[in-house]
TrEMBL record:
A Pfam family it matches: HATPase_c
Catalysed reaction, written as an equation: ATP + protein L-histidine = ADP + protein N-phospho-L-histidine
E.C. code: 2.7.13.3
Protein name as it appears in the record: Sensor-like histidine kinase SenX3
PANTHER family recorded: SENSOR HISTIDINE KINASE GLRK, TWO-COMPONENT HISTIDINE KINASE
Keywords, sorted A to Z: ATP-binding, Kinase, Membrane, Nucleotide-binding, Phosphoprotein, Transferase, Transmembrane, Transmembrane helix, Two-component regulatory system
Organism: Actinoplanes palleronii
Record has tRNA processing as a keyword: no
Xref: Gene3D superfamilies: 1.10.287.130, 3.30.450.40, Histidine kinase-like ATPase, C-terminal domain, PAS domain
Length: 660
């Protein structure tokens, strides 16, 4: 294939064939499709002999050697590459080849490695087989072997029959922290006495079952996964392969160790993302799904604990809305459930809208703002939950291992946070769409009844008075009174519609000032008691609950909630009003017993024009605008209004307003 760059055409096939490394390319069916000149020279073959043939037909085992296993080992390695799409580094292999010009086999030793080549869409195209001839070393030329081993990108360690490490390449020395003259295996055990070895499922591996010990007992090690976890060292996952050597030479066993921690984490992140996406596609309540997603992320990615903090847009603080801990772990008991912007680890992530790594919880200033006692937790990563430039919440994951800031984990957790942000935005958009559709239907019903009925009556009476000039003065006065009353009802309805629309769109300007919410509640209760003697109104509030707000508009809200409670409260019961505030939020609650809001109508209680079935059945007058207007006023103040769940014993409307 020729590729032009800067006016120069490069023949990449020729470049490949001239490469100094011994390289062979096979297709997914393991048929040879290309070979470098160095490979042909090393194996004593030519392209015409091997091209298009199965690799095992072109390079078979020595039929005179009943113990030959070169074909089986190579086949297993190629299958791992083909099935798992991973680079597979094989232990040094005894794999004889046919001597050119002769019919017998010549013993050769190779250091093979197999790598996948994928298309942009993930399809396996070829497998590249690299085979370094290490026969010279195995037969006694140690300097050559050391040079070859140091050229490999995997750790290799060779032991003699006494368990002494007689060779190791630079990657092995870096991986295990070995000096050039590494001591016997028992000294290795002392070196790694603080390291716990387990399989990927967390089951401890006994010392006698570690790869080195297995090899010294003559047992081969094939693709063994070992997780090494040391004191104040993050876990590392190792893929180990090895083979005992029984030819009487100096080497008794050789291990090839490839660290696959990053590759394993990448697969974990991918699978976790898929599971989170499936979870958030359910129709369950948003709060329960966020809680489940927090636990799923913590568990699947191997964290010790995880938290979800939601941004309270009213109080402008973070509130911890979900948390998860792994078995035998717990978060510090004194952790606050509320944090200001820039305070603590979650607050810092909220303020910066950037990932926050904490390598040492015991010494980090932001961590100290939450707790002074973090053990056994040692590190944390916090990411913001985005919605454009707005932050909806913060996801925090904790580890009991020291963690170094890692781009892979940062990117993965940021991606999962984006899933959560998209989910919350989608739920909000779905809610708005459903409300808009319901509003359209209710508006049609309003026009069809609340507007048309009085207009029809006004028009009919006007026509009767016009068509009957001899109508008595008394009858005419009665009709004019009805026309006047009905037109007044229409005017009130239209003004309320305009009020709702103006408030929701922000076209009606608030007149805010410092106001005592407790005084508003008491004044509204006194007026309501004068018009209703069926129930008692009990106000429970400190003398002062100060906020910035429009007193007239806020009084409208209290009056509407009281009117609603008095409408449904049975005679002889008590309607309660409570008001209180903390440093961030003021809360007003109006509670009554009586008929509950049905579960299927609960979500629509604040919708424009909506009236419950009980309201219609009992003939209670109204137009479904009161609670809508109350919500619009509260939201214009930067607050929220909610109603208690249908299964609760009382019906409580809760208004939350920012203190400032």
């Amino acid at each position: 294939m020729f590729v032009a760059a800067m006016g120069i055409e490069v023949d990449f096939r020729r470049v490949f064939e001239s490469a100094p490394a011994a390289l062979l390319v096979v297709d997914p069916d393991l048929r040879i499709v290309a070979a470098s000149d160095a490979y042909l020279q090393a194996t004593g073959t030519d392209r015409a002999m091997i091209m298009g043939r199965l690799i095992f037909d072109a390079f078979p085992d020595d039929p005179a050697d009943p113990d030959a296993d070169g074909v089986d080992n190579l086949r297993a390695s190629l299958n791992r590459v083909r099935d798992n799409r991973v680079v597979d580094v094989m232990a040094i292999q005894k794999y004889p080849i046919v001597v050119p010009g002769r019919t017998d086999f010549e013993t050769r030793y190779w250091a093979p490695m197999n790598s996948p080549v994928e298309s942009p869409d993930g399809e396996l195209l070829w497998i590249v087989h690299r085979a370094e001839d290490v026969t010279a070393y195995v037969q006694g030329q140690e300097d050559t072997l050391h040079a070859v081993l140091d050229s490999l990108d995997t750790a290799v360690v060779g032991c003699d029959s006494d368990g002494r490490a007689v060779l190791s390449n630079h990657i092995a020395r870096d991986l295990f922290g070995l000096p050039p003259d590494a001591g016997p295996v028992d000294l290795w055990g002392q070196r790694f006495s603080h390291v716990a070895f387990s399989d990927p499922d967390g089951n401890a591996i006994a010392p006698d079952d570690l790869p080195v010990e297995l090899l010294l007992r003559g047992e081969p090690v094939e693709n063994m996964l070992v997780v090494a976890k040391g004191d104040r060292v993050a876990p590392r996952t190792l893929r180990v392969q090895g083979k005992p050597i029984s030819d009487g030479g100096r080497l008794a066993a050789v291990l090839a160790v490839h660290e696959i921690t990053r590759a394993q984490r990448a697969e974990q992140f991918k699978e976790c993302g898929r599971q989170v996406a499936e979870l958030l596609a359910r129709a369950d309540p948003a709060d329960s799904l966020i809680k489940a997603a927090t636990g799923l992320i913590g568990e699947r990615l191997g964290w010790s604990a995880a938290e979800f903090w939601s941004v309270d847009q009213v109080g402008r603080v973070l509130r911890r809305s979900a948390s998860w801990t792994a078995p035998e772990h717990q978060l510090p008991r004194e952790l606050p459930d509320r944090l200001g912007k820039g305070i603590g680890i979650p607050g810092r992530a909220w303020k910066s809208n950037e990932p926050v790594w904490v390598a040492d919880l015991d010494t980090d200033p932001a961590a100290a703002q939450q707790s002074r006692h973090w053990a056994p937790l040692r590190s944390a990563l916090a990411v913001a939950i985005p919605s454009g430039a707005l932050v909806l919440g913060v996801l925090v994951c904790y580890s009991d291992d020291p963690e170094t800031p890692d781009d892979m984990r940062t990117t993965a957790l940021t991606g999962l946070a984006a899933y959560l942000g998209e989910f919350l935005e989608r739920r909000r958009a779905d809610q708005f769409a459903a409300e808009l559709e319901a509003t359209r239907d209710e508006y049609i019903a309003l026009v069809g009844h609340d507007l048309r009925t009085p207009l029809t009556l006004v028009q009919s009476y006007a026509e009767m008075m016009r068509d009957d000039p001899d109508m008595s003065a008394a009858d005419r006065d009665d009709m004019l009174e009805v026309v006047h009353r009905r037109s007044g009802d229409l005017q009130v309805l239209i003004e309320k519609l305009l009020d709702v629309a103006g408030t929701r769109n922000g076209h009606i300007t608030l007149q805010p000032r410092l106001v005592n919410l407790a005084d508003l509640a008491r004044a509204a209760a006194e007026q309501a008691e004068r018009t209703s003697s069926r129930v008692t109104i009990d106000v429970n509030s400190p003398a002062r609950v100060m906020i910035n707000g429009d007193p007239g508009r806020l009084r409208n809200v209290v009056d509407e909630l009281l009117h609603n409670a008095l409408t449904w409260a049975p005679a002889g019961t008590v309607v309660g009003i409570t008001a209180h505030a903390d440093d961030h939020t003021a809360v007003l609650a109006v509670t009554n017993v009586g008929t509950r809001i049905p579960a299927d109508e609960h979500a629509r209680i604040f919708d424009l024009f909506y009236r419950t079935e009980n309201t219609l059945h009992r003939g209670i007058p109204g137009n479904g605008l009161g609670l809508t207007l109350a919500r619009a006023i509260v939201e214009q103040h930067g607050g929220t209004i909610t109603v208690s769940e249908p299964e609760e014993a009382t019906t409580t409307f809760i208004v939350r307003l920012p203190v400032t």
